[in-house]
Amino acid sequence: MLLCILIFEQGKSLFVSCVIFAFVLLYMIDIKVELKPTGPELSFSQRLIYSPSILNLKNLSNSSIPVYASHSPTSLNDGISFHTDYQRVKGRFLSELNIPQGLRKLTGEDVLKSTPQVFDSRYKSPCWINDKHILRCLPYCFSAGIPKSATTDMNSKIVSHPDIVDGRGEHWWTRNRYNGYKNIWATERKGSVAFERYLNGFGLLANKLHIGLSDLAAHLISVDRSTSLLWDNHILDGVDGGPEYTHADVIRLVQPNAKIIAIFRNPSERLYSDYKYFKQMQHKSPDLFHKKVVNSLRIFNNCLKDHDIRKCTYTYKGDVRLHIGNYNIFVREWMRAFPRNQLHFLRTDEWKNCAVELPKIYDFLNIRVLNASELTSICNGKLKNVNTSSKKLGPMLTETRILLDDFYRPFLKDLANILEDDRYTWN
């Protein structure tokens, strides 16, 4: 540009040509330069591909969505490892550990001061005797999502096992424990009351363990069935690249040996089911759904102009819950925080064969195998929470499905890559 200013004295036409050439050169450089984040060095969970590529709604099928930098599944745990970072001591509480400030704040002092570093070894479940000499227990397993993917049916059949005591979760970790969030415990959010109320949800398990300490009773477990746990981090403080810590980090800190289960459905189908199921009093139609999808894609794309895809996923606020289908974003968080053998993933497609998939889940939970008669009795039970509005509304429009399939395709490709299973592309 300085050269153009000097040329200006030689003639206006030459100056104009120089300016045009300069802008063309800058444009070509901008295309080839990889955008870099500004500010402090990002943590593992924030190492992303920064790309100027933005989705074009007019030609979505030819667009390229920036996704996570490729990591092999074996390298996903090179972030925080609570087994190695913290030397847990029996008889002490989590609050006494040297926990990073961000994670400490997200976990909450009431949780840290109430939860021991080491649980009672007499029980399979994470239990302990509190300062009031009351047996308290956390869930052994978290069935963490994804909503509208047969989670209700799957969970109801999981807890039908005689060794599983049904408990409550009610989205406590992701929603109901935060100040300012509308919830059923709005008047009881001071001190450790909220956490105590959460633990009360698993009081039946504690009572059964307390009544009779036997080999059979000691192996009883409970499940938190909050289907928002895997993906809902919207209330966390946002930073460049998204939240520094997520609820995956919190659960790993509080219950390091937790078992995590998640079921996934084709994200395009899941979104349409989600749209039909929630807020049923509103007027709905395939045409209206299409308009909402187009607007939601526009909102997401506008976010990508200034932020990376992880940040946009966590801060998204659109007409439909588009972001829940970005499965790879959430799976990477949990694979970073937990060893792979503590995570069990399956698809709704496979769950249709309950007699095959349910024993796999029981084996994952390390509970006794049921005989054929017991399994048949459970799997032949009535399907739970079936979306009956589908027949009334009809299928989604073909053009809507094309838009959604094109949008989700790069996410699913990455998901299949990290899980080493091509079925998760839903091709």
Task: Describe the protein.
The chain has about 425 residues and is an alpha/beta fold. Strand 1 (about 125-130) and strand 2 (about 135) form a beta hairpin. The protein is globular and about 70 Å long. About 45% of the residues lie in helices and about 5% in strands. The protein has two domains: about 1-50, no CATH class; about 75-425, P-loop containing nucleotide triphosphate hydrolases (Rossmann fold, 3-Layer(aba) Sandwich). About 35% of the residues are buried.
Integer count of domains: 2
CATH topology of the largest domain: Rossmann fold
> Biggest sheet, open or closed, and with what strands and sense?
5 strands, parallel
* Number of β-strand runs: 7
**Stretches where pLDDT falls below 50 for ≥5 residues?**
5-9, 26-84, 180-193
Q: Secondary structure elements and their pairing?
A:
Elements: H1 2-8, H2 12-32, H3 82-85, H4 101-107, H5 109-114, E1 127-129, E2 135-137, E3 141-145, H6 151-158, E4 164-166, H7 172-176, H8 193-200, H9 203-211, H10 215-218, E5 221-224, H11 247-254, E6 259-264, H12 267-277, H13 286-304, H14 309-315, H15 327-337, E7 343-347, H16 348-351, H17 354-364, H18 372-379, H19 389-393, H20 398-419
Helix pairs in contact: 1-2, 13-20, 15-20
Task: Please tag this protein with its features.
427 residues; alpha/beta; Rossmann fold; 5-stranded parallel sheet; two-stranded antiparallel ribbon; globular
Short description:
By secondary structure, the chain is of the alpha/beta class. Helix content is 43%, strand content 7%.
